[in-house]
Amino acid sequence: MLQLDAEALYDELQQGVRGLLRPGGVLVGIWSGGAWLAERLQCELQLPGAPGVISSTLHRDDFSARGLAAGTGATQLPFAIDGRHIVLVDDVLYTGRTLRAVLNELFDFGRPASVQLAVLVDRGGRELPVAAAFAAARLVLPAAQRLSLARSPAGRFSFTLEPEAAA
Q1: Beta strand segments in the chain, E
Q2: Residue 1 predicted with pLDDT over 70
Q3: What is the pLDDT of residues 117-148, one digit of tens each?
Q4: Stated pTM of the model
Q5: How wide is the angle at C-alpha 123 spanned by C-alphas 121 and 128, nearest 5°?
Protein backbone atom coordinates (compact mmCIF):
# COMPACT_ATOMS: atom_id res chain seq x y z
CA MET A 1 0.00 0.00 0.00
CA LEU A 2 1.21 3.50 -0.88
CA GLN A 3 2.41 5.54 2.11
CA LEU A 4 3.05 9.25 1.58
CA ASP A 5 4.05 11.51 4.45
CA ALA A 6 2.11 14.69 3.65
CA GLU A 7 3.85 16.68 6.41
CA ALA A 8 7.32 15.79 5.11
CA LEU A 9 6.22 16.70 1.58
CA TYR A 10 4.79 19.97 2.90
CA ASP A 11 8.24 20.85 4.29
CA GLU A 12 9.71 20.29 0.81
CA LEU A 13 6.91 22.30 -0.77
CA GLN A 14 7.66 25.18 1.58
CA GLN A 15 11.28 25.27 0.42
CA GLY A 16 10.22 25.03 -3.23
CA VAL A 17 7.72 27.88 -2.89
CA ARG A 18 10.32 30.00 -1.11
CA GLY A 19 12.52 29.59 -4.20
CA LEU A 20 9.69 30.47 -6.61
CA LEU A 21 8.43 33.61 -4.86
CA ARG A 22 9.62 36.86 -6.36
CA PRO A 23 9.64 40.19 -4.49
CA GLY A 24 6.04 41.36 -4.26
CA GLY A 25 4.83 37.94 -5.39
CA VAL A 26 1.66 36.39 -4.02
CA LEU A 27 0.33 32.94 -3.24
CA VAL A 28 -2.96 31.70 -4.68
CA GLY A 29 -4.24 28.34 -3.48
CA ILE A 30 -6.48 26.21 -5.67
CA TRP A 31 -9.66 25.23 -3.80
CA SER A 32 -9.60 23.19 -1.52
CA GLY A 33 -6.33 21.35 -0.81
CA GLY A 34 -4.25 24.04 -2.48
CA ALA A 35 -6.03 26.72 -0.44
CA TRP A 36 -5.17 24.87 2.78
CA LEU A 37 -1.54 24.66 1.70
CA ALA A 38 -1.37 28.35 0.65
CA GLU A 39 -2.90 29.44 3.96
CA ARG A 40 -0.26 27.59 5.97
CA LEU A 41 2.56 28.66 3.63
CA GLN A 42 1.48 32.32 3.92
CA CYS A 43 1.80 32.10 7.69
CA GLU A 44 5.00 30.05 7.90
CA LEU A 45 6.80 32.06 5.20
CA GLN A 46 5.70 35.21 7.06
CA LEU A 47 4.18 36.81 3.98
CA PRO A 48 2.04 39.92 4.49
CA GLY A 49 -1.73 39.80 4.10
CA ALA A 50 -3.74 36.76 3.13
CA PRO A 51 -3.23 34.33 0.27
CA GLY A 52 -5.68 34.22 -2.60
CA VAL A 53 -8.04 31.32 -3.13
CA ILE A 54 -9.17 30.37 -6.60
CA SER A 55 -11.93 28.03 -7.73
CA SER A 56 -12.04 26.11 -10.99
CA THR A 57 -15.81 25.56 -10.83
CA LEU A 58 -17.08 28.08 -13.38
CA HIS A 59 -14.46 27.29 -16.03
CA ARG A 60 -14.42 23.49 -15.88
CA ASP A 61 -14.92 21.66 -19.16
CA ASP A 62 -17.24 19.26 -17.31
CA PHE A 63 -19.36 21.98 -15.67
CA SER A 64 -22.54 20.84 -17.42
CA ALA A 65 -22.14 17.38 -15.85
CA ARG A 66 -20.88 18.50 -12.41
CA GLY A 67 -22.62 21.83 -11.88
CA LEU A 68 -21.93 23.78 -8.70
CA ALA A 69 -20.78 21.33 -6.07
CA ALA A 70 -21.95 21.94 -2.53
CA GLY A 71 -19.19 23.31 -0.35
CA THR A 72 -17.12 24.53 -3.27
CA GLY A 73 -15.22 27.65 -2.34
CA ALA A 74 -15.54 30.85 -4.29
CA THR A 75 -12.57 32.72 -5.71
CA GLN A 76 -11.20 35.30 -3.27
CA LEU A 77 -8.28 37.40 -4.45
CA PRO A 78 -7.49 40.07 -1.82
CA PHE A 79 -4.99 41.81 -4.11
CA ALA A 80 -4.74 43.09 -7.68
CA ILE A 81 -3.70 40.50 -10.26
CA ASP A 82 -2.37 42.85 -12.97
CA GLY A 83 1.41 42.76 -13.13
CA ARG A 84 1.80 40.40 -10.13
CA HIS A 85 4.06 37.37 -9.95
CA ILE A 86 1.78 34.58 -8.81
CA VAL A 87 2.62 31.20 -7.35
CA LEU A 88 -0.37 28.88 -7.71
CA VAL A 89 -0.40 26.18 -5.03
CA ASP A 90 -2.21 22.85 -5.34
CA ASP A 91 -2.20 19.52 -3.58
CA VAL A 92 -2.26 17.05 -6.49
CA LEU A 93 -1.57 17.66 -10.19
CA TYR A 94 -3.16 15.03 -12.41
CA THR A 95 -4.76 15.66 -15.83
CA GLY A 96 -4.16 19.42 -15.94
CA ARG A 97 -7.85 20.21 -16.49
CA THR A 98 -8.32 21.90 -13.11
CA LEU A 99 -5.24 24.03 -13.79
CA ARG A 100 -6.63 25.07 -17.20
CA ALA A 101 -9.89 26.13 -15.55
CA VAL A 102 -8.03 27.99 -12.79
CA LEU A 103 -5.93 29.92 -15.30
CA ASN A 104 -9.10 30.98 -17.12
CA GLU A 105 -10.57 32.15 -13.81
CA LEU A 106 -7.36 33.97 -12.87
CA PHE A 107 -7.27 35.88 -16.15
CA ASP A 108 -10.87 36.97 -15.56
CA PHE A 109 -9.39 39.09 -12.75
CA GLY A 110 -6.46 40.58 -14.65
CA ARG A 111 -3.18 39.91 -16.40
CA PRO A 112 -0.40 38.68 -14.10
CA ALA A 113 3.28 39.23 -14.92
CA SER A 114 3.92 35.51 -14.39
CA VAL A 115 2.24 32.39 -13.02
CA GLN A 116 4.13 29.40 -11.64
CA LEU A 117 2.67 26.21 -10.20
CA ALA A 118 3.88 24.45 -7.04
CA VAL A 119 2.28 21.15 -6.04
CA LEU A 120 2.61 18.69 -3.22
CA VAL A 121 2.31 15.68 -5.57
CA ASP A 122 2.52 15.35 -9.35
CA ARG A 123 0.83 12.03 -10.08
CA GLY A 124 1.36 12.05 -13.85
CA GLY A 125 -1.47 11.23 -16.26
CA ARG A 126 -1.54 14.61 -17.98
CA GLU A 127 -4.21 15.25 -20.62
CA LEU A 128 -3.09 18.83 -21.24
CA PRO A 129 0.44 20.19 -21.78
CA VAL A 130 1.04 21.64 -18.30
CA ALA A 131 3.79 21.09 -15.77
CA ALA A 132 4.56 22.22 -12.23
CA ALA A 133 7.55 24.49 -11.65
CA PHE A 134 7.97 22.60 -8.37
CA ALA A 135 6.59 19.26 -7.15
CA ALA A 136 7.51 17.89 -3.72
CA ALA A 137 6.89 14.35 -5.05
CA ARG A 138 6.28 12.69 -8.40
CA LEU A 139 4.59 9.33 -8.64
CA VAL A 140 2.40 7.34 -10.98
CA LEU A 141 -0.98 6.08 -9.84
CA PRO A 142 -3.52 4.03 -11.77
CA ALA A 143 -6.35 6.12 -13.21
CA ALA A 144 -8.76 4.14 -11.00
CA GLN A 145 -7.22 5.67 -7.84
CA ARG A 146 -7.72 9.11 -6.33
CA LEU A 147 -5.15 10.76 -4.07
CA SER A 148 -6.72 13.34 -1.76
CA LEU A 149 -5.23 15.70 0.79
CA ALA A 150 -6.91 15.84 4.21
CA ARG A 151 -6.39 18.42 6.97
CA SER A 152 -6.91 17.71 10.64
CA PRO A 153 -8.50 20.28 12.98
CA ALA A 154 -4.96 21.03 14.19
CA GLY A 155 -3.90 21.87 10.61
CA ARG A 156 -1.80 18.74 9.98
CA PHE A 157 -1.89 17.22 6.50
CA SER A 158 -2.34 13.59 5.46
CA PHE A 159 -3.28 11.72 2.29
CA THR A 160 -6.07 9.29 1.54
CA LEU A 161 -5.99 6.93 -1.43
CA GLU A 162 -9.42 5.92 -2.70
CA PRO A 163 -11.07 4.44 -5.77
CA GLU A 164 -11.83 7.14 -8.37
CA ALA A 165 -15.48 8.17 -8.32
CA ALA A 166 -17.45 7.28 -11.43
CA ALA A 167 -18.13 10.27 -13.69
Answers
A1: 26-30, 52-54, 85-93, 114-122, 134-138, 145-151, 157-163
A2: no
A3: 999 999 999 999 999 999 999 999 999 999 99
A4: 0.92
A5: 115
Closest CA to 94 of 45, 148, 58, 54: 148
Collect contacts of 40-48 with beta carbons under 8 A, ≥24 apart: 40/10, 40/155, 41/13, 41/14, 41/17, 41/89, 44/14, 45/14, 45/17, 45/18, 45/21, 47/21
Per-residue pLDDT, averaged over 69-84, amounts to 84
Backbone angles phi, psi at 64, to 5 degrees: -65, -30
Q: Which residues of 70-95 are buried (b: 16+ CB within 10 A; e: fewer)?
A: eeeeebebebebeebbbbbbbbbbbe
Checking if the pLDDT of 73 tops 90, the result is no
Residue 67: how many other CB atoms lie within 10 Å: 11
Query: Torsions phi, psi of 159, nearest 5?
Result: -110, 150
pLDDT band at 59 (very low <50, low <70, confident <90, very high): confident
